[in-house]
Amino acid sequence: MDLQTIALGFTRFAESIAVFVIAAGLFQNAFHVWQLVLAGRALRRDRGIAEAPQLWRRYSESAPPIALLVPAYGEELTIVESVRSLLSLQYPAFEVVVVNDGSKDRTLEALVEAFELQPAERDYELIAPCARIRGLYATHRQPKLLVVDKENGGKADALNAALNLSRASIVCSMDADSLLEPDALLRAVRPFVDDPERVVAVGGSVRIANGCETRFGRVTRVGTPRNFLALLQTIEYLRAFLMARLAWSELKCLMIVSGAFGLFRRDAVLAVGGYSLGTVGEDMELVVKLHRRHREERKPYRIVFLPEPVCWTECPEDLRVLGRQRARWHRGALETFERHRDMVLNPRYGRVGSLGFGYVFLVDVLGPFIELAGYVLIPAFWLLGVLHIEYLFAFLAVSAGFGVVLSVGALALEEAELRRFPDVKSLAVLMLAGIAENFGYRQINNIWRLRGTWQYLTRQQGWGAMTRRGFKPASA
């Protein structure tokens, strides 16, 4: 075989790689544009949702009791303000079940001191598996609050403990570093009231609290973060919730309800065994189990996302901490995919098996490797003179150009329909961040996803440390 033949074969190989990577990127971005259109249509359809007083008049008498499940590990800085926020929610009947999951800091002591808690007793049945419960704490001054102290078992384990101890028909999973808007529960419970027989889960929006001001456990002023990483995550969250989650809900194959804010029918969760242990993707795992059970039993059901109920959370401002979080998220998605791989393209599971799991396979399983091939091989082939420059331009247009369009599109939906940001300056800063994230930050994210894949393949467990700065108090 002569050198010319070898060179021709290598050129064809390089062109095949480039065409595959560009085609995969085009398919994924075209799907995202479709999601953007679906989300915009849904927001326009539901425009004019009633204000809090109207919601109260309409739903307060029929709204079912809700138990807020709040797992806490190492949350000494934010736990008291978070619980105060929850206790002041505008909802007719609810309880707050906080689970101290064997924290090594003063999380439990902070709660006991702030709310003057005393040892308490409550009858409960251990239906969902969880580690040993060491004690319960309550006070007559806050009858809605129950604090559970247990041995460390992880987030899913702590949620199961709260699930066992809760008494309400609807449970709301929370993160301890989160703040709910006062009317969030009233807005989120609407599908359960309007369609009680079919609705089994409802997800709400999660927003970044970095840069916002809080007072008495509430966000009093919405602002943009000064930290650049937090600013980029603000755009990410807007795109993920306002565009992607809403579109998946419209397609009736929502694959995840965020662990930071999600409502579930308690009996439906217990029927699938509660939260699965041994995974860091317990929120996605639970939703997939609900899909599987109802599809297998051929029961009509709905899993819904609503953009109006808002939960505010603190995001990492350090590259190392953020990298650990993103690798963990990706590892959790892969763990769920492995556990339910028999659902992929299985007609028994309808859109969930074909569209939902098909997307997970393309984006989460294959996606990191496709992106790696694009970022490394296409520029390398061009530098070697094997590929024409048109291939490089096409790849850059697919990887960066569409990203800018989607970020700006999500920001336009926010401004047109929800308008949480107070001024033009904030929107301009976010728009610049939406452009900047495609040049460096997105590529770093792919490295974190590859790390998550490695952790999954080597069966690494654990969450990794998450440092908290605490919420920014409102100025006097």
Describe this structure in words.
- This protein is α/β, with parallel strands linked by helices.
- The chain has 15 helices and twelve strands.
- It has helices spanning 3-45, 52-59, 79-87, 107-115, 155-165, 184-188, 190-194, 228-250, 266-271, 282-296, 319-339, 350-383, 389-418, 424-436, 441-457, and strands spanning 66-72, 94-101, 118-120, 133-138, 145-150, 170-174, 178-180, 199-208, 213-215, 218-221, 261-265, 302-313.
- A ten-stranded mixed β-sheet has the order 3-4-5-2-1-6-11-8-12-7, with helices on both faces. Strands 9-10 form a two-stranded antiparallel ribbon.
Beta-strand content estimate: 15-25%
Overall geometry comes to globular
Average predicted local confidence, pLDDT: 89
Low-confidence stretches: none
What's the main sheet like? 10 strands, mixed
In which range does the helix fraction lie? 40-55%
Write the layout of secondary structure elements.
Blueprint: H1 3-45, H2 52-59, E1 66-72, H3 79-87, E2 94-101, H4 107-115, E3 118-120, E4 133-138, E5 145-150, H5 155-165, E6 170-174, E7 178-180, H6 184-188, H7 190-194, E8 199-208, E9 213-215, E10 218-221, H8 228-250, E11 261-265, H9 266-271, H10 282-296, E12 302-313, H11 319-339, H12 350-383, H13 389-418, H14 424-436, H15 441-457
Parallel strand pairs: 1-2, 1-6, 2-5, 8-12
Antiparallel strand pairs: 3-4, 4-5, 6-11, 7-12, 8-11, 9-10
